[in-house]
Amino acid sequence: MPDFPLTRRRLIAAGALAGLGITFPRIAMGAEQSKRLVFIIQRGAADGLAMVQPHGDPALRSLRAALVDDDAHDLDGFFALHPAMEQTARMFAAGEARAFHAVATSYRERSHFDGQNLLETGASAPYAIGTGWLGRLVPLLPGEGGAMAMSATVPLALRGERPVATYAPPNRIPDPSDELLAQLGTLYAEDAQLAPLWEEGLRTRMLASDIGADNGRNGAAVGALVASLLTAADGPRLAMIETGNWDTHLGQAGRLRTQLGGLDALLGGMREGLGSVWADTLVLIATEFGRTAAINGTMGTDHGTGAAALMLGGALPAGDPVVADWPGLAPSQLYENRDLRATANVLDIMARGIAGHFALDPERALAAVRAA
Amino acid sequence: MNPQRNIATDRFGLGVQADEAVPDDLRCWLREQLRRFDPAPSALAAYPDSAAIGGAYADLVRIRRSAREEGGDAEAARAMGMAARQEDARLLAEAAATRIEMAVASETSFAERLVHFWSNHFAVSVEKLPLRIYAADYEFRVIRPNIMGSFTDLLLSVAAHPAMLIFLDQTRSVGPGSALAVRANRRRSDREIGLNENYAREILELHTLGVRSGYGQEDVTELARALTGWTVAGVGDGRLARFVDAADGETVFVEELHEPGPRTVLGRSYADTGAEQAHAILRDLALRPETAAHIARKLAVHFIADDPPAAAVTRLAQAFLASDGDLPSVYAALIDEPAVWSAPRAKFRSPWDWLVASLRVTGIAGAGDNLRGSIRAFGALGQPVWQSGHPAGWSDQMVDWASPGALLARVELANRFAPRAGRQGDVPALATHVLGDALRSATADAIIAAEASGTRGTGLALLLSSPEFMRR
Questions:
Q1: Of B413, B430, B387, which Cα lies nearest the Cα of B92?
Q2: Rounded to the nearest 10 degrees, how much is the dihedral formed by the CA atoms of A201, A205, A210, A211?
Q3: Is A204 on the interface with B (CB under 8 A)?
């Protein structure tokens, strides 16, 4: 017979999150694990050339004048951060943020679904393996690093041998009676496939009651919510946040302003919520591939190749604000005459970042990430 | 009881209704359902006609225009926009309720499942405002009436409806060498108008051939060029209005937008026949072996297992090719496919599947005070109606649906509507009727014990939350 919490206050967090169909976390792990890791995936191919704009490249304006912002935050005289990312710009200024540009996985086609599959599995061919690189890293992390996903189901990147919590959409449905839960517990115990999920779900209910005061109406609230989970005594130490709506085929300028503003608010909210724990936190942000260097016929951009990834945290090792082996945007420098060429592998970059953060053997981290 | 009964009712169909009589000859029963399927049932009678849908869209276009043009009265335009949005949301909710109602009441639920399957294959999603107007119209008037015809006709009908053209940005795509683009780009050099290849790519990747089936970037671009000219009247900023001889909201081919010249897709050349050029390509794509294999696999995943046997996929693809994409022939092959009948009950029900099956047991009243309650429930379970947010539609794999939160959410919902269900009565007998041979003795015993304890609804909630009811 499974144990049940004696008090089961409902999870009231939600609002905007509810519409996204969010589910909930669990977790029980050692308090000795002090390092936190957050992976934010930008689904839909976020435009790296708009997020971190290479103002110093002479070809930029001829390709996409309407997508270049003069009020972008200068980072190093060559690159500038999108103007909507004000709080992130302050983190750059404080040495708490770094961009990696002209990066991609090994994938060179332009399907979202295949591209995301590679970004999440770390494999070199789509659908080659069923686990994700974060999921494979979890067992390697010191302490008992529990993981959770801010989404209704477990994203591929987090799938591995360890169970992962999901953040469930709050609702106003009366609690099932303990009697019903107890009976179902017996029925599910005999089901090899569903039993672990069921137990996980029950643990989730317990933790959910402790963060009920949060409200995820916008990016800032999502960030604060994640921060509250990551700082809870028995909360997760690793979180993945899924963001969508980056596929800006048309009217990109306005949509990206909203999107990047939301991402900025999320990062700001999370940093604030983490407080002193920010110094123990590493945040990675990546997308499946970039977008065309030139603007298309509908004031947007189409699927491309090289993108930008971000790394943030309160204790980032010293370094340049933007790291890039910049390939250039002149016609002869573009990949297939249309995209920013990728000169570094985004998965390698993230693996190295994680290895440094958790003091893991870099080769071991890399092997786990690349499924090698 | 025929041990294969619940394959027919749950895997082919949408679940057993509380008072449904299932005949012994299951294959004959399924074939009969395909024949009896009503593409325009009475539940759809109250749905607005095409003219009204087009009118709603025309209103939206007008409001957007006046918001842009009459800078002086932005406030009024905003208010009008708000009112129109509320009205569109109301119509969308009513249509979603109709969809649920038809699924719950259907006596030909195998065919009804096929409607949902194709609607998901050719997915549109209501995040884009105009889709709130068009998503239901698209399923009711394009998908429903075409699922018993040929795949070619289905593909062409999809390509002729504003929902898809707007959803995948076809309405924004202009041939860079078209008469209009040449003139416009001569005037303004900072803002070139031109191709948007979104729809072309998804036709190849999602609707026909399938991803990694051998087409290349140039095929995508060529198909995008061929598709230029196809648009929806009223879309855009009005510059086009003088070229368009159609009411706002109607699909139309505008020669002025069409990229002139012959096109080459998958090595085959297509003369510039204007409107017909793209259709000629679509007709060829529809009957390619890659398309047959892609559709066959999706059907096998839906009806057999997350990872279906290759031989079954091959047989379905052969049925597709041998009949030139005649869908009833493919469905017949599905009914005759041994793997559908022998695969274990392991398909994890999607939220849509689970809730519809639950409502077929409890009756619609179980969902709450009205159908709005059940619409919200689909959202709470992670599968809001017509809102996959994705041109690929909803996943058909267990890993994407089975999660700790998902199980708990279903239990909570079952617990909410079981006590309100019209039918309480003899729950142990109902469990046998609903789950047939799939009902395990542990579940049956738990239901009997719960009923004996006397808490209203607990037995029914147990049935709907049981591991076997989670699958089909």
A1: B387
A2: 60
A3: yes
Quick one: average pLDDT of B335-350? 96
Read off the DSSP letter of residue A326.
-
**Has this prediction a pTM greater than 0.80?**
no
Spatial separation of the C-alpha atoms in residues A98 and A93, rounded to whole Å: 10
Q: Which secondary structure element, helix H or strand E, spans residue B252, and what is its range? A: strand B251-253
Tell me the C-alpha distance between B138 and B251, whole Å.
12
The winner for highest mean pLDDT among A21-35, A199-213, A295-309, B286-300 is: B286-300
The answer to whether residue A5 sits within a structural domain is no
- The amino acid sitting at B461 is A
Model pLDDT for residues B23-75, shown as the tens digit of each residue: 999 999 999 999 999 999 998 988 998 888 888 888 887 777 777 665 556 77
For residue A12, give every residue at least 6 positions away whose Cβ sits within 8 Å of its Cβ, in sequence order, or none. Answer: A170, A212, A213, A215
Secondary structure (3-state) at A57: coil
Of A130, A250, A303, the CB nearest to B172: A250
Residues of A in contact with B392 (CB under 8 A): 113
Query: How many other C-beta atoms can be found within 10 angstroms of the C-beta atom of residue B273?
Result: 12
Q: Does residue B238 carry a pLDDT above 70? A: no
Q: Are A102 and A326 in contact (CB under 8 A)?
A: yes
Number of domains in chain A: 1
Torsion-angle region of A7 (φ positive above 0: left; ψ -120 to 50: alpha; else: beta): beta
Nearest residue of A to residue B414 by CA position?
A176
d(CA B173, CA B258): 9
From the CA of A199, how many Å to the nearest CA of chain B? 8
Express each pLDDT in B67-92 by its tens digit.
766 555 677 777 777 888 888 888 89
CB environment A36-74: b (16+ within 10 A), e (fewer): bbbbbbbbbbbbbbbbbbbbebebbeebbeebbbeebbe
Look up the CATH number of the domain holding residue A208: 3.40.720
Q: Does B195 touch chain A (CB under 8 A)?
A: yes
Residues 179-198 in A contacting B (C-alpha not used; CB under 8 Å)? 179-181, 183-184, 186-188, 190-191, 193-194, 197-198
Q: How many CB atoms lie within 10 A of CB B431?
A: 26
The range of the structural domain enclosing residue A186 comes to: 10-369
pLDDT at A258: 82
Q: What is the pLDDT of residue A43?
A: 87
Residue A4 lies in a domain: no
Find the CB nearest A297 among B192, B379, B381.
B192
Q: Which pair of structure tokens corresponds to residue B162?
A: 């504003």
- Would you say residue A248 lies in a domain? yes
Pick from A53-62, A117-126, B204-213: least confident: A117-126
Q: Which residues pair with A37 in a beta bridge?
A: A238, A282
In this structure, the strands spanning A147-150 and A238-243 are: parallel
Select the residue from A114, A151, A153, A243 to test the B interface by mutation, using most B Cβ atoms within 10 A. A153
- Please indicate whether, in this complex, the C-beta atoms of A205 and B412 are within 8 angstroms of each other: no
ipTM of the complex: 0.83
Q: In 3D, which of B410, B91, B16 has the Cα closest to residue B99?
A: B91
Which residues between 174 and 193 in chain B have a beta carbon less than 8 angstroms from any beta carbon of chain A? 174, 176, 181, 190-193
Touching check for A303 and chain B: CB below 8 Å? yes
Strand A322-323 with A80-81, pairing: unpaired
Task: For chain B, say whether A62 makes contact (Cβ under 8 Å).
Answer: no
Instruction: Give pLDDT, residue B375.
Output: 79
Q: Does B18 touch chain A (CB under 8 A)?
A: no
Per-residue pLDDT tens over the stretch A253-281: 888 888 898 899 899 999 999 999 999 99
Indicate the burial class of B90 (C-beta count within 10 angstroms; 0-12, 13-18, 19 or more).
Answer: exposed
pLDDT at A372: 58
Q: Is the pLDDT of residue A8 over 70?
A: no
